[in-house]
Amino acid sequence: MRAVVDDRDLAALNGARPARTSSLAWALGAALAALAGVLLAPVLIRLDIVPLTLLVLDAYAAAVVGRLRSLPLTLVGALILGFLQSYSIGYLPRLFPDNALPSWLSGIGAALPVLMLFVVLLLLPEARLRGPAPSRPRRCGWPASASPCSARPRSSWRPGSW
Fold first, then answer.
1. Are 37 and 52 found together in one domain?
2. To 5 degrees, how large is the angle CA 117–CA 94–CA 65?
3. Which of 110, 120, 131 is closest to 65 using CA atoms?
4. With contact defined as beta carbons under 8 Å apart, do 3 and 11 qualify?
5. Whole-angstrom distance, CA of residue 62 vs CA of residue 75
6. Residue 136, domain member (yes or no)
7. Angle at 102 between CA 100 and CA 104, to 5 degrees
8. What contacts 114, CB < 8 A, 6 or more positions away?
9. Helices 49-65 and 108-123, axial angle in degrees (round to 10)
10. Both 81 and 15 in a single domain?
11. Is residue 38 part of a domain?
C-alpha cells in the first residue's frame, strides 16, 4: 500500500496492481471504521452529533502529532491527549477550593484537543507541513555553451507563422 501511495506508476512497473491495492485500502479502512463504531456504541450511550464531532477532533489532534504519517507518533499523541483529559477531569479540580473548577475552566476537557492541535501546529516546522522540498534541476558537468541540459530547443516555428 505504501508503494502505491508513494508512486503508483513505479509500483505498477514492479508488478503491483495500484487500483486493486487502493480498493483494498478503502475496504480495510471502512471495515475498521465499522468495527470502531460497533465497539464505541456501548460506551457512547447517546449517539449525538456533539460527542462524535469531539471524538473526530480528538483523533485528528492525535494524528497531527504523528504528522499524519507515523502511527507510533500518533499513538503517542493519543496517549498525551488522553492523559491530559484525564488529568483535567480527575486532578485539576483538586487544585481549587471546594474541589470545583472555576467557571472559566469548566469546559477545559472539551477544549484540550483544540489547544493541543494549536500547539502542535505552532511547534511543527513549516517545511514539514508543506511536504518534501521540490527537486532541483539536473546539472551536467559540461560547459554551459555545450551542455545539453541547459540548451533551449531551437524551433523555426513561431506563433502566427502559419
1. no
2. 15
3. 120
4. yes
5. 7
6. no
7. 145
8. 57, 61
9. 30
10. no
11. yes
Domain count, the chain: 2
Is position 121 within any domain?
yes
Q: What is the pLDDT of residue 49?
A: 81
pLDDT at position 158, please?
57
- Name which residue leads in pLDDT, 54 or 141: 54
- Over residues 98-137, the pLDDT tens digits come to 777 777 787 888 889 999 999 998 887 765 555 565 565 5
Task: Dig out the grid coordinates for 73 from the structure.
Answer: 507518533
Contact 79, 140 (CB under 8 A): no
Q: Which three cell numbers stand for residue 142?
A: 559540461
| Nine-digit cell string for 104 | 472559566
Neighbours of 137 (CB within 10 A): 7
Number of Cβ atoms within 10 Å of the Cβ of 37: 12
All three cell numbers of 121, joined, read 501546529
Q: Which residue has the cell 513561431?
A: 158
Structural domain span for residue 76? 45-127
